[in-house]
Design a protein that fits this description.
By secondary structure, the protein is an alpha/beta fold. It contains 15 helices and 19 strands. The termini are far apart.
């Protein structure tokens, strides 16, 4: 009989969350390194460079890979011969571990979990509660998988009740392009097939925790239908040409993992969930001998790359920026921003729109300004801000026209593509939209030299700040004419990949 001590589980969960906040899984680093080495799209390769440089910086500095430090998912397998020593429920132990892990003073993680999700949406401040799934299994050990999943990739989860004769491959190929780039590819797709709706979703999430081994599978060949399905989806999703950050390129997924379960004769439930470039999970086992120990990956596993920009980069002074200047920029341009920018996300935008509708004065002058969609991690030690990568821009689309037409705003920075509503507003007002690389939050933060709170301080990380930046790298994603690199890039690269496939077949 194994006795698991309460404090051992609490400590292990807390340590695991710190560990995965700044260390990518080793299999993921190796897969990203391979994707970087074979990538031919300049825009995608530049994005992969930033992700890999950021990853190594985080491993050295022990700071979060992404400013969205995730909602915690814990998968438990409890041996039937396990006993517990403690006075808390297992869920309370895990949540206490989450609380301690997110509040660790040397690496405070961002609280992103809100209670009353359809009401006041109040931040719990400590990222509790976790989402916990428990299985009771034979044995005398406790098996634990801890994951921290960002909201951008979770938002792209898809589910459908297919007819029994429908093709899973066709459905996945239909829905992946609708995910856009908000899940920060390249990453991993988890697919769950069968069971009931909730079982399919859980299997898709569980599949994401499995090791990346698609190339081993390619080498030995498929042994069953699920392995053949993995290979087919891996090849066909990459052939879509979506690429890193949706900019167009050779690698959209690093692996596809599939799990299935028996289902009703009339049904075929199918779920797909992506993991992003900030993939964070770790497995540990408790056997009664003490808390889990986590071994850092070897820094030699990261490729020896430096973040360098080419000669065609445009240097931009935000303090003297005018609409006439932004209209000379073209989609795909690389820009280095210096000067003062504003920040603001969903909650701040909602308040601004409410003020405009009531005819009340705004707390900030937006005239000829650029706003960055960001909610950074709190700073530690001598940091100006903590990791400060972009959030998904499509959530701001419904506010964009009013912001551009009623405030004097001329530019925005976020993550991934803009939807038709956002692009139309940008084109009609001859504004611009830029992207920073999702999954490079610590690298971006190094460009921020000063941060000043301006408005809505009660919103915490969603308040409006003024950042002073020096050489912050961005890509012009939508220019003043409405051309979008997220439309042109994948179209170009899917064509190139299709041509290569045809030439091989011939």
């Amino acid at each position: 009989m194994t006795v698991i001590k309460q404090d051992d589980l609490i400590t292990s969960v807390a340590d695991a969350l710190q560990f995965i906040s700044y260390y990518h899984p080793l299999d993921f680093i190796r897969a990203m390194r391979e994707a970087y080495e074979k990538e031919e799209s300049p825009a995608a390769k530049a994005a992969l460079t930033q992700v890999l440089v950021n990853s190594r910086m985080c491993a050295l500095g022990k700071r979060p890979i992404c400013q969205d430090t995730g909602i915690v998912t814990v998968l438990l397998e409890v041996g039937m011969n396990v006993q517990w020593e403690g006075d808390m429920s297992v869920e309370d132990m895990i949540n206490e571990g989450v609380r301690r892990g997110f509040a660790f003073p040397d690496n405070v993680l961002r609280g992103s979990v809100l209670t009353d999700p359809d009401g006041e949406r109040r931040n719990t401040k400590d990222n509790t509660p976790a989402v916990i799934h428990t299985k009771i299994v034979p044995g005398d050990k406790l098996s634990v998988e801890v994951a921290a999943k960002g909201g951008g990739s979770e938002a792209k989860a898809k589910f459908a009740m297919l007819n029994p004769s429908d093709s899973v491959v066709d459905w996945v190929l239909d829905v992946v392009p609708t995910m856009g780039a908000g899940w920060c590819p390249p990453g991993i797709l988890g697919v769950g097939i069968g069971g009931t709706p909730e079982k399919a979703m859980l299997m898709a999430k569980e599949a994401l925790m499995e090791p990346i081994d698609i190339h081993e599978l390619e080498s030995r060949g498929a042994a069953d239908h699920l392995e053949a399905l993995r290979l087919e989806l891996y090849a066909k999703v990459n052939a879509l040409g979506i690429g890193a950050q949706g900019l167009g390129g050779l690698t959209t997924v690093l692996d596809v993992k599939v799990k299935d379960y028996p289902t009703h004769a009339a049904n075929k439930p199918v779920a797909v969930i992506p993991n992003c470039t900030a993939t964070r999970h770790v497995h540990f086992t408790l056997d009664g001998s003490g808390p889990a120990q986590f071994v850092p990956p070897d820094l030699d596993e990261w490729p020896d790359v430096a973040f360098e920009l080419g000669d065609e980069v445009r240097r931009v002074n935000l303090d003297t920026l005018t609409p006439e200047q932004t209209r000379t920029w073209k989609a795909g341009d690389t820009l280095l921003l210096s000067g003062k920018m504003l920040t603001g996300r969903d909650a701040a935008h909602k308040r601004i729109i409410d003020l405009l509708e009531r005819g009340e004065p705004l707390p900030v002058d937006f005239t000829n300004r650029v706003i960055y969609y960001v909610g950074p991690v709190d700073p530690v030690r001598d940091e100006v801000v903590g990791p400060a990568g972009p959030t998904t821009a499509t959530r701001m689309d419904k506010f964009t026209r009013a912001m551009l037409e009623q405030t004097g705003l001329i530019g925005m920075i976020g993550k991934a593509e803009r939807g038709p509503t956002g692009v139309d507003a940008i084109r009609d007002n001859q504004a611009v939209y830029m992207i920073a690389v999702g999954g490079a939050a610590y690298l971006v933060a190094k460009a921020i030299t000063k941060s000043t709170l301006l408005a809505f301080d009660d919103l915490g990380m969603e308040a409006i700040y003024e950042f002073e930046v020096k050489d912050m790298p961005v890509t012009l994603a939508v220019d003043s004419s409405g051309e979008s690199v997220h439309a042109t890039g994948p179209r170009i690269w899917s064509g190139k990949i299709a041509e290569r496939i045809r030439s091989v077949e011939v």
